[in-house]
Design a protein that fits this description.
- The protein has 368 residues and is mainly α.
- It is built from 17 helices and no strands.
- It is 74% helix and 0% strand.
- The longest helix is centred in the last third of the chain and has 30 residues.
- The radius of gyration is 20 Å and the shape is globular.
- About 3% of the residues have low confidence.
Length: 368
Amino acid sequence: MKIIEVIFYFITPFLITKGIKRWPKLGVISPILLCYMVGIILGNQNLLPIDKQLAFSLSELTIPVAIPLILFSTDFKRWLKLAPKTILSFVLVAISAVLSAILATLFFSWVDEYWKISGMLVGVYTGGTPNLMAIGMGLQVTEKTLILTNTSDAFLGGLYFLFLVTGAQWLFGKILPPFSAPKLEPALAATEEEGSKKELALAVLLSLVMVAISAGVALLLTGKLDVAIVMLVLTTLGIAASFNRRVRNIKNTYEAGQYFILVFSLALGTNINFQEILVSSSDIFMYTAFVMTMAILIHLLLAIPFRIDTDTMIITSTAGIFGPAFIGPVAARLKNREVIVAGLTCGLVGYAIGNYLGFAVAWLVMPR
């Protein structure tokens, strides 16, 4: 029975992603949120028996495996070759996320686990969902807070994405200068080309080895499996591996990492009590809304004196708030293909720095 459940957790995300490709209207809801919803429905029904401990154990394993896979395709050397204004704008994205998260702790200190939420939101608004999950697990946040924070981010992110593909360029263009930059070489930071399945399998194996090494380092340093240390060591190993060209050029490692995130979302969703979500969602929703809104506004205000152009501001904001997956649609709306490389690269670099910044902010604002 347990084998059937494990197969279910790995097959369902595949069916969901295929369904989104077949029916594009489903794309309005992110695959992660859909997996959460399926998991919550499954975990709150009484017809089928669910081993929730198995699901929780699976969720604890999938995030550590996903982190190196996502980082393998990051090209830091290429990022440093981008236009200086692009790098500066993304640095401002990170600064804005940190400032907004710290500011939130002053106004929302009455929210349960507020300092942990700030750390998770810094991670997600410089990197992406994997960072939010990794930081949440490292800080030992409750399952309820973890899923409510991610759900709030998914809903609010949907609203911001709608703004980005409608009136953002027009509105920000009233404040910032127009785009003007030399054309970048066409190589992408992450590619969707099909690669060798054998190489991808080796990448997954390498990721598992890194998980084992990270766990060993944590045991050696603290005598226990300190998840925060595991996540930070894992991030560092993933970044180090990305400097190896053979590892970096393995195709579809980013997509494989994202797939493990979907498995995590589905498995974790089965452990969430739906009634608790309805009762306690408003506080975390307001917290998340404050941090996201302030992060965007601070980034916009900082872009003015530094003369960041409209398209660069929008694409680096997209990279920070969403990650690489949303770069293509936003660039298409901007009618500017030249910002795609910058957006993809910044998004991947964001994954790399998100864990460091998130843990740092959480520990900084942690109640003494």
